[in-house]
Automatic annotation (TrEMBL):
Source organism (scientific name): Rousettus aegyptiacus
GO cellular component, one term: SCF ubiquitin ligase complex
The keyword NAD appears for this protein: no
PANTHER family for the chain: F-BOX AND LEUCINE-RICH REPEAT PROTEIN 9, PARTNER OF PAIRED, ISOFORM B-RELATED
Alphabetized UniProt keyword annotations: Leucine-rich repeat, Ubl conjugation pathway
Region of interest called Disordered, as start-end residue ranges on this chain: 105-135
Key word Cell membrane present: no
All copies of domain F-box, residue ranges: 1-50
Domain of life: Eukaryota
Protein's name in the database: Leucine rich repeat containing 29
GO biological process: SCF-dependent proteasomal ubiquitin-dependent protein catabolic process
SMART domains: FBOX, LRR_CC
Length: 290
């Protein structure tokens, strides 16, 4: 059935796959191989366009560009240093070495490789990136005020703890990052003290201990999304209530360790809070809008 699709449509469909899956798809047939190659060229086109955009660009939204490569991210960090908004949600191929400005160890072309091996080579990355940023790292974008890394699921504390150091950053999303731990949270808190909006939903490794160390760094925090952070308890609510006096909106939906009684105590502690999303907290289906 897929063979009957126009080549452009097949390329469009494959462009939504991670590079590793594009590699597998390229083995199906000659048509699929060419479609996978074209999907990769779309990232190459963006790569070639970035230097032309120049330092005057302020907002760049590449959300859902799932084939975006680490090489292209490094080009962004090199040429677009005046960006104030960078959205990379669902760019699932981004890895620690890309954010740290490192070279991919297997960058050299493999002699005698077959076409499908070329795709596999482009999908590979280093297993143990350096802990220190080098080259065109995300640190070069010091003008950032908004950064969205939602669902960039290959990122870990290895890079996040080193490159998320933006004194001017106001809005940050690290939702759906399964490898983000308390160590990364504390490092981000120290590196981004001006945050007003923070999304950490579905970061299941975060716990009360991490928030006990991080919360005091965010006195300006107004909007906080902690939905589906399953290890958090009312202790985190107490910590946030003491440290984040400017909070206005809090989402603790699907946080099974936080009861409705704890939510009400939090509300009493901070009467300026206008909305608390607490769906299924303590077995209830409630959103408190005040």
């Amino acid at each position: 059935m897929a063979e009957l699709l126009p080549p452009e449509m097949l390329t469009y469909i494959l462009s939504f796959l991670p590079l590793s899956d594009q590699k597998e798809a390229s083995l199906v047939s000659r048509a699929w191989y060419h479609a996978a190659q074209n999907a990769l060229r779309e990232d190459a086109s963006l790569f070639s366009l970035i230097p032309v955009l120049g330092p005057s660009l302020r907002v760049l939204d590449l959300s859902s560009c799932v084939a975006l490569t680490n090489r292209t991210l490094q080009a962004i960090c090199t040429y677009l240093t005046q960006l104030s908004v960078l959205r990379l949600a669902w760019c699932k191929e981004l890895q620690d070495w890309g954010l740290l400005g490192l070279r991919e160890p297997s960058e050299e072309p493999v002699q005698g490789s077959q076409p499908h091996q070329e795709l596999e080579h482009q999908a590979s990355g280093p297993k143990d990136p350096s802990s220190q940023p080098q080259g065109p790292s995300l640190l070069m974008l010091q003008a950032l005020q908004e950064l969205d890394l939602t669902a960039c699921s290959k990122l870990t504390d290895t890079s996040l703890a080193k490159v998320l150091q933006f004194p001017q950053l106001r809005q940050l999303s690290l939702s759906l990052l399964p490898a983000l731990t308390n160590k990364g949270l504390v490092a981000v808190a120290r590196g981004c003290p001006s945050l007003e909006r923070l999304a950490l939903s579905h970061c299941s490794l975060l716990s009360d201990e991490g928030w006990a160390q991080a919360a005091h760094s965010w006195p300006r925090l107004q909007h906080l999304n902690l939905s589906s952070c399953c290890q958090l308890t009312e202790q985190t609510l107490d910590t946030i209530g003491r440290a984040c006096k400017q909070i206005q909106m809090l989402d603790v939906a699907m946080c099974s360790g936080i009861s409705m009684a704890a939510v009400r105590r939090f509300q009493a502690q901070l009467p300026q809070v206008t909305c608390i999303h607490s769906r299924f907290v303590g077995g209830a289906d409630l959103t408190l809008t005040l």
